[in-house]
């Protein structure tokens, strides 16, 4: 499944790790190179996730290693990918 289909009825939300990384770049709406909880919450709503505010909060809490309230840097992106795979089931490793 390609990213443009996310949130569209009839499309799966499963994606490869690379597709997830591309999706994360789109999640960064203001282009500051970091992902806020609000940006993540809005993106999760678009793909049809229930309780997006809670899922975004938990994901940020898990992946924000430097506690600056953003997902930024490669290590934090990797933690978010791992979290998404384990908790949301949307990342398919290939």
Strand content: 5-15%
How is the CATH topology named? Answer: Recoverin, domain 1
Span of the ends, CA to CA: 13 Å
In the CATH hierarchy, the architecture is Orthogonal Bundle
Tally of helical segments: 4
Task: Note the topology.
Elements: E1 15-16, H1 17-27, E2 35-36, H2 37-46, H3 52-63, E3 70-71, H4 74-88, E4 91-92
Parallel strand pairs: 1-4
Antiparallel strand pairs: 2-3
Helix pairs in contact: 2-3, 3-4
Keywords: Calcium
Organism: Cocos nucifera
InterPro entries: EF-hand-dom_pair (IPR011992), EF_Hand_1_Ca_BS (IPR018247), EF_hand_dom (IPR002048)
Structure, explained:
The chain is mostly helical and 94 residues long. It has one domain (3-89): Recoverin, domain 1 (Orthogonal Bundle), CATH 1.10.238.10. The protein is 51% helix and 9% strand. It contains 4 helices and 4 strands, in the order βαβααβαβ. It has a two-stranded parallel sheet. Strands 2-3 form a two-stranded antiparallel ribbon. The chain is globular. 22% of the residues are buried. Mean pLDDT is 85; it is low at 1-11. It comes from Cocos nucifera. InterPro entries: EF-hand-dom_pair (IPR011992), EF_Hand_1_Ca_BS (IPR018247), EF_hand_dom (IPR002048). One of its GO terms (molecular function) is calcium ion binding. Residues 15-50 form the EF-hand domain. Keywords: Calcium.
């Amino acid at each position: 499944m390609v990213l443009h289909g996310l949130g569209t009825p009839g499309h799966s939300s499963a994606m490869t790790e690379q597709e997830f990384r591309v999706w994360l770049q789109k999640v960064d709406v203001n282009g500051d190179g970091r992902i806020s909880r609000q940006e993540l919450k809005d993106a999760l709503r678009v793909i049809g996730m229930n309780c997006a505010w809670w899922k975004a909060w938990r994901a940020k809490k898990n992946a924000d290693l430097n506690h600056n309230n953003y997902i930024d840097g490669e290590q934090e992106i990797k933690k978010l990918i791992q979290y998404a795979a384990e908790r949301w089931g949307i990342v398919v490793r290939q």
